Amino acid sequence: xEMKREPLGGGQPPSDFxxxxxxxxDMINGDLEGEALQRYAEQAVMTxxxxxxxxxxxxxxxxxxxxxxxxxxxxxxTAVGSRMDIARFGWEAFRASPRQADLIILxxxxxxxxxxxxxxLYDQMLDPKWAISMGACCSSTGVYNNYALVASDKFMPIDxxxxxxxxxxxxxxxxxxxxxxxxxxxxxxxxxxxxxxxGTEEVWPETDPSNTAxxxxxxxxxxxxx
Amino acid sequence: xxLTSDYRKREESITFSAEPAGQGETHELLTLxxxxxxxxxxxxxxxxxxxxxEVxxxxxxxxxxxxxxxxxxxxxxSYWKVIPVIERMDYLSYYFNAMAFCGAVETLLDxxxxxxxxxxxxxxxxxxxxxxxxxxxxxxxxxxxAISIFWYCLREREMIMDLFEMSSGQRMHTRYFxxxxxxxxxxxxxxxxxxxxxxxxxxxxxxxxxxxxxxxxAFERLHGVxxxxxxxxxxxxxxxxxxxxxxxxxxxxxxxxYSSYENFDFKIPVGTVGDNYDRFRVRLAEIxxxxxxxxxxxxxxxxxxxxxxxxxxxxxxRHELATSMEALxxxxxxxxxxxxxxxxxxYYPIEGPRGELGCFVRADGSAKPxxxxxxxxxxVNLQALAPMVRGAYIADMIATLAMLDPILGGIDR
Amino acid sequence: MPDATGLELTAHELREADSGSILGTEFHRGxxxxxxxxxxxVTVLSTLQNKGYTFLASLHGCDYYxxxxxxxxxxxxxxxxxxxxxxxxxxxxxxxxxxxxxxxLFPGANHxxxxxxxxxxxxxxxxxxxxxxxxxxxxxxxxxRRDFPVGGEAVLFTYNExxxxxxxx
Lengths: 226, 413, 169
Prior knowledge:
The structure holds three protein chains of three kinds. Chain B is mainly alpha-helical. Helix content of chain B is about 50%, strand content about 10%. In chain B, helix 4 runs antiparallel to helix 5 and helix 5 (about 115-145) runs antiparallel to helix 16. The mean pLDDT of chain B is about 90. By secondary structure, chain C is an alpha/beta fold. Chain C is elongated, with a radius of gyration of 20 Å. Classes of the chains: A mainly alpha, B mainly alpha, C alpha/beta. At the A-C interface, loops of A face loops of C.
């Protein structure tokens, strides 16, 4: 194997990742000096620490949307109450306007009449935004596998599913904490960690977005006339 | 797609009964869409309000946003399995939903519920009534702006949820009521814990009354706001605390007692004018009465089986399965197919926290019901919203909606 | 509840008032039901209203598939003074599901009649605002009828995941 030393900035402009990789290698070898060293120090400290700080702040002060559909909403409201106290994590500022909210907790059964409304609300939320699907009914139509309900996965991307019917406030808190980990970027890989299976993520087959029977395909945009 | 879809055209065809007031001057009526996602509607209720300034001239509720097809799903399940399906209808009064359905099926089967089961049912029903009223008070006060009451009421509600968890393992939708009785007897620590709760509840309810009674803002927002007389309420078919606030002491627990309610001594709180203040006071007073009923039921709890001894309807106790072949066969039949109900129809009404909750069951001889319909009180009570708020300010409409206590799960089913 | 003889007397009175209005009576487990002719439902209910059953507790539909006439509309009436309940059942065929609306007698029948229309397709003539109430406005089909499929998604098991829509082609 040939060792090639590529000068930074010389030749073809390297990709961002490649240039950072080379900078890091030079740093480890002690080859960076002067201005390059200073730039590296600024970049490394700024990017990673700032990102992490922002993510930490975001995760600890998420604004959920005041949104409750059915029985799960009662347990969600109980989680806001003093025994389970979602305010411990800084999430007590429920906003009524989707423009001001980061998180939509779908608590309850989503009927076919309500699904376009929820999609519109989700579209109105500003990035970055997250969604928790709380309960069995919105995750997978739950008890009511019939004409009236639709699983929330079918029309919007969901970050965390909380199972239960209704999930206890403790279960909702578990889901909340997992979402907080996700926002922080430290979400555990779950079973893959425990069984040493990292790197075995599923790869979906090439899906045709025009085939509307595909699950988890949600072309964004046109919610007019809903 | 055309700019105005068919759906929109149909929506625009909704007619309003309001007419602009005044002559000569042009008064503009504003049609405002409130909901379905709105912090002040209790669930996904959509209201199309026609406003003249801040005064409401007409209101049209549009519902169906949480329609779950409960009645259709119930037709696909055997009677035992319908109970969890039907419980999730009116999600704050889950024991009542189960009671109405079990009562209807027990009528059709002509099976008798043992007295201990009746008393246990009464205890859980009245605890559920207190929990439902507490939640109503919490969200109602939240709508008015008195946010502290929310935390206090949820504190009491947690105690009730703990009791439910003790008796059945679940906080909500407990599947505790079965056809013929209850699923399990209460555990050993239950009476003591219940007594502790009953000792503390009346003084807590006093505290809630104190917070809102002496508050000028609550006074202005509740007294004399949106009254509706008894006549109109009866014509619309309203029952429950709304009717009692207007002066009519109609309560099915006294008028047509079911499940041993005749053995208990309690009063029916009745209002005078039927405005928001009366509705608030009636529900608060009902909490005290429910506490009385529960303590009487607990003191007088009879011994005996907690579910009917008819093995064709109720599961045999597990220890019998080891020794009796018959018990094994009954268990097998009940778990696989379920009991069969002879052909017939029954409508069983009970007094829920919001009014008359009835369950209509049509049986066709098989193990699955042919039709289950829940007559939900909120569905009928919602029709009273429009007459109540005509001519009131929009903020009063929000307060009235809170005092009306609609539960969208029951309205939409 | 009126007992069996009381029910027969009521039926007799109604037949006197309007012949052909009562097709029969049912008395099952202590509950009294009058089978009314769908065309005479308004007279039956107004006579009962004058007799004291002034409160309409419930108005709901039922699909008696496969017996004809298939669609039944049930009126639960309550007499608050005597604490008496009586049910009036009117059945309409599915190809001509029209029945008169009782909104003038009982204004509280507004939403329940809309629900019966929405779920079963029974058209209430004289109703001020007959639109769908629970399903979306432009829904086609009447969900609560017995021949309407329950719908929902097939649960994916190993035996049907290859052929079910979705993940695997």
